[in-house]
Protein backbone atom coordinates (compact mmCIF):
# COMPACT_ATOMS: atom_id res chain seq x y z
CA UNK A 1 0.00 0.00 0.00
CA UNK A 2 2.46 2.53 -1.16
CA UNK A 3 -0.15 5.21 -1.61
CA UNK A 4 -1.60 4.95 1.89
CA UNK A 5 -0.04 7.42 4.27
CA UNK A 6 -0.44 7.36 8.04
CA UNK A 7 -1.91 10.38 9.81
CA UNK A 8 1.25 10.84 11.88
CA UNK A 9 3.45 10.78 8.77
CA UNK A 10 1.12 13.20 7.02
CA UNK A 11 1.38 15.66 9.93
CA UNK A 12 5.15 15.27 9.97
CA UNK A 13 5.45 15.82 6.23
CA UNK A 14 3.25 18.93 6.33
CA UNK A 15 5.43 20.28 9.15
CA UNK A 16 8.57 19.53 7.15
CA UNK A 17 7.23 21.15 3.97
CA UNK A 18 6.55 24.30 5.98
CA UNK A 19 9.95 24.14 7.62
CA UNK A 20 11.53 24.12 4.13
CA UNK A 21 9.46 27.14 3.12
CA UNK A 22 10.49 28.92 6.33
CA UNK A 23 14.08 28.11 5.48
CA UNK A 24 13.53 29.61 2.01
CA UNK A 25 12.24 32.83 3.60
CA UNK A 26 15.19 32.90 6.00
CA UNK A 27 17.75 32.63 3.17
CA UNK A 28 15.93 35.34 1.26
CA UNK A 29 16.19 37.61 4.32
CA UNK A 30 19.89 36.78 4.62
CA UNK A 31 20.31 37.61 0.93
CA UNK A 32 18.70 41.01 1.46
CA UNK A 33 20.91 41.64 4.48
CA UNK A 34 24.03 40.99 2.36
CA UNK A 35 22.68 43.05 -0.56
CA UNK A 36 22.12 46.01 1.80
CA UNK A 37 25.80 45.87 2.70
CA UNK A 38 27.09 45.70 -0.87
CA UNK A 39 28.09 42.04 -0.62
CA UNK A 40 26.64 40.67 -3.87
CA UNK A 41 28.43 37.29 -3.81
CA UNK A 42 26.97 36.29 -0.46
CA UNK A 43 23.61 37.77 -1.45
CA UNK A 44 23.55 35.71 -4.66
CA UNK A 45 24.45 32.48 -2.85
CA UNK A 46 21.69 33.00 -0.30
CA UNK A 47 19.16 33.91 -2.97
CA UNK A 48 19.93 30.77 -5.00
CA UNK A 49 19.75 28.74 -1.82
CA UNK A 50 16.41 30.28 -0.96
CA UNK A 51 15.11 28.96 -4.29
CA UNK A 52 16.47 25.48 -3.47
CA UNK A 53 14.72 25.45 -0.12
CA UNK A 54 11.45 26.42 -1.77
CA UNK A 55 11.91 23.50 -4.18
CA UNK A 56 12.38 21.19 -1.19
CA UNK A 57 9.10 22.40 0.30
CA UNK A 58 7.32 21.81 -2.99
CA UNK A 59 8.83 18.32 -3.29
CA UNK A 60 7.30 17.41 0.06
CA UNK A 61 3.90 18.82 -0.92
CA UNK A 62 4.15 16.88 -4.21
CA UNK A 63 4.86 13.69 -2.30
CA UNK A 64 1.73 14.26 -0.19
CA UNK A 65 -0.36 14.99 -3.28
CA UNK A 66 0.94 11.95 -5.16
CA UNK A 67 -0.24 9.78 -2.31
CA UNK A 68 -3.67 11.41 -2.42
CA UNK A 69 -3.42 12.51 1.20
CA UNK A 70 -5.60 15.50 2.02
CA UNK A 71 -5.07 18.46 4.26
CA UNK A 72 -1.68 19.87 3.30
CA UNK A 73 -1.49 23.54 4.22
CA UNK A 74 0.98 26.38 4.04
CA UNK A 75 1.23 27.54 7.64
CA UNK A 76 4.55 29.30 7.89
CA UNK A 77 4.77 33.04 7.56
CA UNK A 78 7.81 34.86 6.16
CA UNK A 79 10.70 35.25 8.57
CA UNK A 80 11.01 38.43 10.59
CA UNK A 81 13.65 40.93 9.60
CA UNK A 82 17.05 39.76 10.81
CA UNK A 83 19.38 41.91 12.80
CA UNK A 84 22.85 40.54 12.32
CA UNK A 85 26.04 42.16 13.56
CA UNK A 86 28.33 40.91 10.82
CA UNK A 87 28.60 38.32 8.01
CA UNK A 88 30.00 35.61 10.31
CA UNK A 89 26.88 35.87 12.43
CA UNK A 90 24.71 35.36 9.34
CA UNK A 91 26.57 32.19 8.35
CA UNK A 92 26.41 30.90 11.93
CA UNK A 93 22.67 31.39 11.83
CA UNK A 94 22.48 29.59 8.48
CA UNK A 95 24.44 26.61 9.82
CA UNK A 96 22.31 26.37 12.95
CA UNK A 97 19.22 26.44 10.75
CA UNK A 98 20.60 23.59 8.61
CA UNK A 99 21.49 21.53 11.68
CA UNK A 100 18.00 21.94 13.09
CA UNK A 101 16.56 20.96 9.74
CA UNK A 102 18.74 17.83 9.61
CA UNK A 103 17.45 16.83 13.05
CA UNK A 104 13.87 17.37 11.86
CA UNK A 105 14.52 15.14 8.82
CA UNK A 106 16.04 12.41 11.01
CA UNK A 107 13.03 12.56 13.34
CA UNK A 108 10.77 12.19 10.35
CA UNK A 109 12.72 9.15 9.12
CA UNK A 110 12.32 7.59 12.59
CA UNK A 111 8.61 8.34 12.53
CA UNK A 112 8.16 6.90 9.03
CA UNK A 113 9.97 3.74 10.09
CA UNK A 114 7.93 3.33 13.26
CA UNK A 115 4.74 3.78 11.22
CA UNK A 116 6.02 1.23 8.67
CA UNK A 117 5.61 3.93 6.02
CA UNK A 118 8.56 2.78 3.94
CA UNK A 119 7.48 4.91 0.99
CA UNK A 120 7.94 8.06 3.06
CA UNK A 121 11.15 6.70 4.52
CA UNK A 122 12.55 6.05 1.06
CA UNK A 123 11.42 9.48 -0.15
CA UNK A 124 13.41 11.06 2.70
CA UNK A 125 16.43 8.75 2.45
CA UNK A 126 16.59 9.14 -1.32
CA UNK A 127 16.92 12.91 -1.27
CA UNK A 128 16.64 14.78 2.01
CA UNK A 129 19.11 12.81 4.13
CA UNK A 130 22.06 13.14 1.68
CA UNK A 131 20.99 16.70 0.79
CA UNK A 132 21.29 17.79 4.43
CA UNK A 133 24.81 16.40 4.55
CA UNK A 134 25.72 18.46 1.46
CA UNK A 135 24.12 21.61 2.82
CA UNK A 136 25.66 21.40 6.27
CA UNK A 137 29.05 20.80 4.64
CA UNK A 138 28.59 23.72 2.21
CA UNK A 139 27.55 26.21 4.91
CA UNK A 140 30.28 24.98 7.27
CA UNK A 141 32.85 25.64 4.54
CA UNK A 142 31.58 29.18 3.98
CA UNK A 143 31.39 29.89 7.73
CA UNK A 144 34.85 28.53 8.57
CA UNK A 145 36.44 30.56 5.78
CA UNK A 146 34.53 33.66 6.84
CA UNK A 147 35.84 33.20 10.40
CA UNK A 148 39.38 32.82 9.06
CA UNK A 149 39.04 35.99 6.99
CA UNK A 150 38.03 37.92 10.13
CA UNK A 151 40.76 36.33 12.28
CA UNK A 152 43.52 37.21 9.82
CA UNK A 153 42.20 40.75 9.36
CA UNK A 154 41.31 39.95 5.75
CA UNK A 155 38.57 41.77 3.91
CA UNK A 156 35.22 40.00 3.83
CA UNK A 157 34.45 41.96 0.68
CA UNK A 158 37.30 40.13 -1.11
CA UNK A 159 36.06 36.74 0.14
CA UNK A 160 32.51 37.69 -0.88
CA UNK A 161 33.31 37.44 -4.58
CA UNK A 162 34.31 33.75 -4.15
CA UNK A 163 31.15 32.76 -2.33
CA UNK A 164 28.88 33.02 -5.35
CA UNK A 165 30.62 30.03 -6.98
CA UNK A 166 30.66 27.83 -3.88
CA UNK A 167 28.57 24.64 -3.84
CA UNK A 168 25.15 24.44 -2.22
FE1 LIG B 1 16.04 22.04 2.45
FE1 LIG C 1 18.85 23.61 3.75
TrEMBL record:
Transmembrane segments: none annotated. InterPro entries: Ferritin, Ferritin-like, Ferritin-like_diiron, Ferritin-like_SF, Ferritin_DPS_dom, Ferritin_prok. SUPFAM superfamilies: Ferritin-like. Fe cation binds at residues 20, 53, 56, 98, 132. GO terms for molecular function: ferric iron binding; ferrous iron binding; ferroxidase activity. Keywords: Iron, Iron storage, Metal-binding, Oxidoreductase. One of its GO terms (biological process) is iron ion transport. Its EC number is 1.16.3.1. GO terms for cellular component: cytoplasm. It catalyses: 4 Fe(2+) + O2 + 4 H(+) = 4 Fe(3+) + 2 H2O. Residues 3-150 form the Ferritin-like diiron domain. Stores iron in a soluble, non-toxic, readily available form. Important for iron homeostasis. Iron is taken up in the ferrous form and deposited as ferric hydroxides after oxidation. Belongs to the ferritin family. PANTHER family: BACTERIAL NON-HEME FERRITIN, FERRITIN. This is Ferritin. It comes from Geranomyces variabilis.
Amino acid sequence: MAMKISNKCLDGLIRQANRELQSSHAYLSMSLWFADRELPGSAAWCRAHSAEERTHGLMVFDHITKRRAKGALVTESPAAKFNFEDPVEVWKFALENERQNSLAIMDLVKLARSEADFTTEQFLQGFFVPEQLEEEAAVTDILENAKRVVKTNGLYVAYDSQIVSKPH
